[in-house]
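Objective 1b of the project was to move from sequence-level analysis to a structural picture of ligand recognition. The entry below was assembled by the postdoctoral researcher (A.K.) and checked by the PI before modelling. It contains the amino acid sequence of the target and the SMILES of the bound compound, magnesium ion.
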Amino acid sequence: MKRPWVAIQRNPTSGTGKRAGLLLEFIRELKRHDITPRMFANRQKMQARLDDSSAREHLICVVAAGGDGTVGDVINRYPGLPIAVLPLGTENLLAKYLKIQPSGKQVADLIVSGSQRKLDVGQLNGRSFTLMASCGFDANVVHLTHTNRRGHIRKWHYIPPIWNSILKYEHPPLRIFVDDEPQPRVARLLMAVNLPAYAMGIPFAPQATGNDGRLDLCLFEQGSTFQMMKYLGHVIAGRHQTLPDVTCLRASRVRIEADVAVPWQMDGDPAGFTPVDLRVLSAAVEVFAPQPTNK
Ligand SMILES: [Mg+2]
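Corresponding predicted holo structure:
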């Protein structure tokens, strides 16, 4: 195969309704520019094709056609390959952050023009995430939601797990070893932000950037439902970083331990339990995206 091509990883649920229209528009635009689109709903088939080095020769990028979950899957399976995102999921926080529109034409144009951005990638026990990871109350909600639910998760599916966590989550303390600090810091909730995009636009670390080789950490020290609600109010108001029991700092290596298994989430999906090692891979992923406008 001599023509340039792209491998499209399609989320199986993205083939219906308006999403199918976006996908068709994307494919039509690529073909118009003599780029061959190859679509894979089957992950193994795509893996087999990309394991073939001669097929990779003319590959421009892997396209994650889906939401943040599809992006996470693609960056974990194809480290080092450039990616494009066609936002077709229920949560498209990375695409929103990068100002990638749900438009087949815009995404095809980005690929044709070669407009790329390099971004840091966070790693949690060796698995990659683009946006953020957290440990404690909100990760417990994510775990319960995924345990109780098969298939598509909608926003309202989080409500019973939030209520359950309010009643039952015990907020165990976390010991957080930051870079080379000899003593751990202690907190009940930890946010580790690579890119400042969180569900419902909640601004945990609005100053975080994806090109400084570090994660922005927020450590919330007190643990109770009342405290969590209070913290959330302060976070939404943008003043949590001034609270005496909240510490925000930057780090490139973090180890988190606890006496019990405390749940983690990354980019909105369950990501196991403590102990956890966090790292950052500097400029580890190239994404087709509009260039950032200077503020
Ligand atoms: Mg950073």
